[in-house]
Specification:
Blueprint lengths: L1 H7 L7 H7 L5 H5 L1 H7 E5 L5 E6 L5 E8 L13 H8 L12 H22 L7 H20 L5 H8 L3 E7 L4 E8 L3 H13 L6 H16 L2 H13 L13 H6 L2 H11 L5 E7 L3 H12 L22 E7 L4 E7 L8 H12 L5 H9 L3 E7 L8 E8 L5 H17 L4 H18 L3 H15 L4 H11 L2 H11 L5 E8 L5
Helix pairs in contact: 5-10, 6-7, 9-14, 15-18, 16-17, 17-21
């Protein structure tokens, strides 16, 4: 199988620069024209539930592939957090035929690793009663099995196959709501991608699992060493009483440390069935050929039912919540208000508010706190763009000699102004123009289009809502902004987090 796949591969190093530049934009008129997109769009779903969105763009001989798994940190349970993010690290470790010299021998070594790890986990649960000699022996067995498994490993073979084929933008990333896998290739490498991607979901092998778990643990330590990272985590934890959005995407250290390969495989089986995947293919392709190849490579992969969505609903907040992080670092204030999901009609209103209040040097917060009052060195707003209800946040970093309290009070003053004074026609027009331009820029490349189409297809139920969002932004009024500000930006719906500077320890 490996050799057959390598025959697909050509060496395209001489065209990589051209390829990177060739994933180009259509005109703005094309980008905004839903009717034009529909002429070039083909949609189909295989019998196993795998959905394909195929958009023809023949400007250059390149194709972008975007696999959207409808699973993120929100789907995890207490005690086993961090699995979705860990799969980002495991995504391209290979299969039973890719990434190994002898899978059967490698599998036996990995089984011994799992056995030793489970035994160590059980012994450690005994706490002070754990047998140190037993733990040392198990650690030795684990290390020996790990070294044995490494002998059969072909490092990064999956990625190397794509690199040799001229790939660009090869990556994966995890969020609260999704895990996504992306790559762009020359258009004559579509079948190679089909072969590799289908094999990855049919016969995945979580090799180097414990090694990658250690990498995630190091990322966790880096986050814990970041003052803002610590604040953000504490802030999220008190903002959400029930909903899993309160858990960190990277997971809790104790959970990550004790996750087993068996638990990860069970997670994959539940959430990575083809009915839970959506694939966008954008570029120089023939939709009929794409369908033929999809049937050839994916149709035989079994798939169970699509997992149920998260049913936990965050209860209404009854009063302001506050958290203080004491740290020998720069002070900071973070203020959040619960808002509804991206599917709520007010999502476009919050987009306009985010722009008017906190984006760029001409925003209200920047002009008031940074330029005029000089009490902050930076300000920011961030609106939620999630599957489930999220948070709209305001933040500021106080200037030297100024305080969190001054910045907090100044932010509240600007919020009250938003409630009592209609925004000017000029402010609203600029916000709409910037929001529209930002969305259009995301449609300017094959990979950007693929990302946006999968997001809107999965989260809103129809990729066409990508274009409807432009209309919603255009319809926002000053009255809408006042109404939303009065409804959501209330003290009882508010969570506040601050970093209070403490002396540096010697």
């Amino acid at each position: 199988m490996k050799h057959a796949m390598r025959r697909f591969c050509g060496v395209f190093n001489c065209m990589l620069l051209f390829f990177a530049m060739a994933v180009v934009a259509p005109t703005l008129a094309e980008a905004q024209d839903l009717a034009e997109f529909e002429k070039r769009m083909t949609e189909f779903t295989l019998d196993n539930g795998l959905k394909f969105l195929v958009l023809e763009r023949h400007e250059a001989p390149v194709v972008s592939f975007h696999t959207y798994a409808d699973v993120g940190a929100v789907d995890e349970v207490k005690g086993i957090t961090g699995l979705a993010h860990l799969f980002e690290h495991m995504a391209f470790k290979g299969t039973k035929t890719i990434g190994t010299r002898d899978y059967e021998a490698e599998a036996r070594a990995m089984a011994k690793m799992d056995e030793a790890f489970l035994a160590m986990k059980a012994e450690r649960r005994k706490g002070n009663g754990a047998d140190k000699t037993r733990l040392e022996e198990l650690q030795k067995q684990f290390k020996e099995a790990q070294e044995q498994a490494q002998k059969y490993l072909v490092h990064d073979e999956y990625e190397e196959v794509l690199t040799q084929a001229g790939s660009v933008g090869f990556n994966a990333y995890t969020s609260r709501d999704a895990t996504q896998y992306i790559v762009s290739l020359p258009s004559n490498k579509v079948e190679l991608w089909m072969s590799l991607e289908s094999e990855r979901f049919l016969n995945p092998v979580l090799r180097e699992f414990y090694k990658e778990r250690d990498v995630v643990m190091e990322e966790r330590r880096m986050m814990e060493n970041s003052p803002y990272g610590r604040l953000r985590e504490e802030f999220q934890a008190i903002a959400y009483k029930a909903h899993p959005y309160g858990e960190p995407v990277i997971g809790h250290m104790s959970d990550v440390r004790t996750i087993t390969r068996g638990e990860a495989e069970a997670f994959f089986k539940k959430y990575y069935g083809l009915s839970n995947l959506t694939i966008a293919i954008v570029g120089d392709v023939d939709p009929q050929e794409i369908r033929r190849l999809a049937e050839l490579y994916f149709a035989h992969i079994p798939s169970g039912p699509k997992p149920e969505p998260v049913e936990t609903v965050e209860p209404p907040q009854r009063g302001e919540r506050r958290v203080i992080v004491e740290d020998p670092s720069q002070p900071r204030v973070l203020i959040g208000y619960h808002q509804l999901s991206v599917n709520h009609p007010d999502s476009a209103v919050f987009e306009a508010i985010a722009d008017i209040m906190g984006r760029g040097r001409t925003s209200r917060l920047s002009k008031s706190l940074v330029k005029e009052k000089k009490i902050a060195v930076s300000t920011r707003t961030r609106r939620s763009w999630n599957k489930y209800p999220g948070l709209f946040t305001f933040s500021a970093v106080p200037a030297k000699g100024r305080t969190n309290q001054e910045c907090e009070e100044a932010i509240y003053a600007e919020i009250e102004r938003l409630k009592t004074e209609p925004v000017s026609p000029e402010e609203l027009a600029k916000a709409k123009t910037r929001a529209r331009a930002s969305l259009i820029r995301q449609l300017a490349s094959n990979d950007g289009l693929a990302a946006q189409m999968t997001f809107y297809e999965v989260i809103t139920g129809d990729w066409r809502n990508l274009f409807n969002q432009l209309d919603k932004i255009e319809q926002v009024t000053a009255e809408d902004i006042q109404r939303a500000a009065k409804k959501y930006f209330t003290s009882k719906n508010r969570t506040v987090g601050v970093i209070e500077t403490t002396p540096t320890e010697n």
